[in-house]
TrEMBL record:
The active site is at C321 (nucleophile), C321, E355 (proton acceptor). Keywords: Methyltransferase, S-adenosyl-L-methionine, Transferase, tRNA processing. The keyword Transmembrane does not apply. It comes from the Bacteria. GO terms for cellular component: cytosol. It catalyses: uridine(341) in tmRNA + S-adenosyl-L-methionine = 5-methyluridine(341) in tmRNA + S-adenosyl-L-homocysteine + H(+); uridine(54) in tRNA + S-adenosyl-L-methionine = 5-methyluridine(54) in tRNA + S-adenosyl-L-homocysteine + H(+). HAMAP family: RNA_methyltr_TrmA. Dual-specificity methyltransferase that catalyzes the formation of 5-methyluridine at position 54 (m5U54) in all tRNAs, and that of position 341 (m5U341) in tmRNA (transfer-mRNA). This is tRNA/tmRNA (uracil-C(5))-methyltransferase. Its EC number is 2.1.1.35. The keyword Transferase applies. It comes from Spongiibacter nanhainus. S-adenosyl-L-methionine binds at Q186, Y215, N220, E236, D296.
Amino acid sequence: MSPGAIDTSQYPNLLSAKVTKTRELMADLGLPEPEVEPSPVSHFRMRAEFRIWHEGDDLYYAMFDPQAPKVPIRVDDFPIASKAICELMPTLLDALKASTALRQRLFQVEFLSTLAGDMLVTLLYHRKLDDTWRVAAESLAENLGVQIIGRARKQKIVLDRDFVTETLSIEGRDYHYRQYEGGFTQPNAVINTAMIQWARRCVGEQKDADLLELYCGNGNFTAPLADRFRRVLATEISKTSVKAARENFTANNIGNVDIARMASEELTQALNGERAFRRLEGLDLQQFKLQCALVDPPRAGLDSATLELISRIPRIVYISCNPKTLSRDLQLLTKSHRVERFALFDQFPYTDHMECGVYLTQGQ
C-alpha cells in the first residue's frame, strides 16, 4: 500500500479504537466522558514533505518505510494532504522534470498550504543555487501562483515571501495568521479550529482576570482567547514563532497581549522571584492577575517547576500532543484541581496519535 493510501470506510473504527486506548490510559484519573472531535476523513493535512527520487530522466515523489529506509516508495497520490497540495503535486512535478535548472540535485520538496488558499513550496538541493536557478524558480512561481523558496547548504533564497497567510473562522470572527516556513503550525486546520473553539468555551468570559499562556507559538490560541481576558502574558522560545505572533496580534487588532521570548521554566523562575531577566524589562509581572493558564507543551510535557506554578492558578486549559505525559502531569494537577472537561481531537487520523484537551478548576 502506498504511504498515502487510506481506506476512509475504516475511519470510524480506527477513531473508536484510539478513543478507547486513550481512555484506558487515563482510567485511574476518573476523568469525565470525553468530547470527541473527529477529523475530515481525507484532505485534512495542510503540510506535507516528500523526497524527490531520480531514475534516469524520471522524477517522482517518494517516502520511506522505517523498516526499509533505503528503499523509496513512489507516491503518486497523497489523499491525506489538503486538496490544494494534491492538485499541485503532479503539476509541480511536470515543471520540475522539464527544467534542468530546477531538477538538478533536487532531493526534497515541502508544501505548506492554508484554508485561505495560500501555498508555499520549498525546494531543497544538494548544490549551491545560482542566478539560473532563480530565473527558473521565478518563472515557476508565477506560472503556478505559489510562493517558492530554495534551500541548499548554508543558503536560503526567498523569491517573494517566506510565509503563508491562514484565516480561521472562530465563532463568527475571522482570525488571520502568518505561518512562516520552518515554523511550527498545527497540521490539521479543521481540528485546530475545533481546539480553539473548545478552549474559548472552557474559559468563558473573564474580563477582570488575566491569562498566562505558555508555549504560545505563533499566537494560534492567544489571538482568539485574548478578548476573553483583561490581559494576556504569553511566552514562546522560538524566535520565528515570536515574530509571527507579534505580527498576528497586530493583524488582528489585539492590543492586550504581552509576549516574552523565553522558556516556560524561565518565566516560572521570574514569576517566583527567583531570577530577573532583561527580556522582561519594562514588564511588571506583579500587575498581572493570573486567574487562568493555558499550556500546550511539547511531547515531553511540563517540567516540575511549571507544574507547581500552574497548580497555583485557579483555572487551567491543558492541550496535549502526548496522552502519556498528560496522564503523568494530571497525577499532580488533580491534587489541587478537578477536571471539568476532557476532549479528544483527532489531529492525525489513521495513526496512533491523539491530541487531548483538559480543563481543570481549583478545588476537589
